């Protein structure tokens, strides 16, 4: 989350969502328009 805030351009939006995947797990997703990561 901190990297999303750090690398999202001013005025950009960060989307955070969560969903239950089974009885004991939760999947958390963060989407943002930042520069991303290299394949390395």
Indicate the structural class.
Answer: alpha+beta
Q: Kindly estimate the percentage of residues that lie in beta strands according to DSSP.
A: 25-35%
Number of strands: 2
Global morphology:
elongated
How much is the radius of gyration in Å?
A: 13 Å
- Count of helices? 1
What topology, given as strand order, has the largest sheet?
1-2
Number of domains: 1
**Fraction of residues in helix:** 10-25%
Quick summary:
The protein is an alpha+beta fold.
Outline the structure in words.
The structure is a single chain. This protein has one domain (2-31). Helices cover 15% and strands 30% of the residues. The chain has one helix at 2-7; strands spanning 15-20, 26-31. With 40 residues, it is an alpha+beta fold. The chain has one helix and two strands, in the order H-E-E. The mean pLDDT is 88. The chain starts with a helix and ends in a 9-residue tail after the last strand. The relative contact order is 0.34.
